[in-house]
Specification:
The protein has a single domain, classed as Ureohydrolase domain (Arginase, Chain A, 3-Layer(aba) Sandwich). Helix content is 30%, strand content 17%. α1 crosses α9 and α8 runs parallel beside α9. The two termini are 35 Å apart.
């Protein structure tokens, strides 16, 4: 290595090295986990009803995230005048992936749940990268001893099917399974639009089970601040983001794209407001399918929104005087 005297250490450009999330350290021994934030891949897509391929999502998002590997400097946002993800203030690690047993939903989901439980036991924030949206089911299961929380879903689809041909744990079921939990106090389902995978009775059931359903057009009409006012304040939130919440013009790499979706800053402002409004205790981002993402823009979008979400969660916790 050449050292020209004005920098110490390696330059470590995005295209160099191993693709952990954000180039953060890899921790293979989950029993030795010590971090503020832990990334867990959930490369499972057997719950898909249309185009498969989200099993490759964690790998693609990790590679894209190296573009945002900030090193020791953190990530300065001049609009907010804040350095997010500042080295020494936030510790982030990558745990690799939960083990997936091909063709076996229950064992695969159990592996994901095990990983999330390990993260929670270590006192870290779990950030799970899917995989299809069914991976949210084991994530929510893992929070059964964590106390009540409100679930915020950013998605094109309601995912509130109870059962279809005996299937109860596919990617059309996770919000229904979550709503059944006694510790999920309610749902905010945001971005839901157009022809949906859930029939009308699913919408009726969702509203009867304490869900507030808003489309992209409804959110735009009322504005982000008004949407945030509809979400309970000062409580704990679990955040689940389906990449198809974004418009396919910027996120084509997904199994069930739906036109009329959100743009980047709309979602970022919503998440920023949510992180200020209460405590985000866990999150997942799902349904990135790189096979359909020929420019790589979907994986980059996913990595960028995850980096910014983690940055804001940890920043507001530090401002509140809590552990990042």
């Amino acid at each position: 290595m050449t050292n020209h005297g004005y920098e110490k250490g390696r330059l470590n450009l995005p295209f160099v090295g191993i693709c952990t999330f954000g180039k953060y350290p890899y921790v293979a021994d989950w029993d030795s986990l010590k971090a503020d934030v832990a990334i867990l891949g959930a490369p499972y897509d057997f719950g898909s009803q249309w185009r498969s391929g989200a099993r490759m999502g964690p790998r693609a998002i990790r590679e894209a995230s190296t573009l945002f590997a900030f090193g020791h400097s953190g990530a300065y946002d001049h609009e907010d005048d804040v350095v997010y993800l500042e080295h020494g203030k936030v510790t982030i690690v990558d745990l690799g992936d939960a083990d997936i047993i091909h063709t076996d939903t229950m064992q695969s989901h159990a592996s994901i749940e095990y990983g999330v439980r390990k993260i929670l036991a270590a006192g870290a924030l779990p950030v799970v990268i899917g995989g299809d949206h069914s991976v949210n089911i084991p994530c929510i299961n893992a929070f059964d001893k964590q106390g009540p929380f409100h679930l915020v879903q950013i998605d094109a689809h309601l995912d509130f099917v109870d059962e279809r041909h005996g299937v109860r744990f596919g990617h059309g079921n996770p919000m229904r399974r979550a709503a059944e939990k006694t510790y999920v106090t309610g749902l905010s389902q945001i971005g839901i639009r157009n022809v949906s995978s859930t029939a009308r009775e699913g919408y009726v059931d969702a509203r009867n089970m304490a869900s507030d359903i808003q489309s992209v057009r409804q959110v735009r009409k009322m504005g982000i601040d008004a949407m945030l006012e509809r979400i309970p304040a000062g409580v704990r939130y679990y955040l689940t983001i389906d990449i198809d919440a974004f418009d396919p013009s910027i996120a084509p790499g997904t199994g069930t794209p739906s036109h009329g979706g959100f743009l980047y800053y709309e979602v970022l402002e919503l998440i920023d407001g949510l992180a200020k409004r209460g405590q985000i205790i866990g999150l997942d981002l799902v349904e990135v399918a790189p096979e359909y993402d020929h420019s790589g823009s979907t994986a980059i979008l996913a990595a960028q929104i995850l980096m910014n979400t983690i940055g804001r969660i940890t920043h507001y916790r530090l401002l509140a005087g809590g552990k990042s």
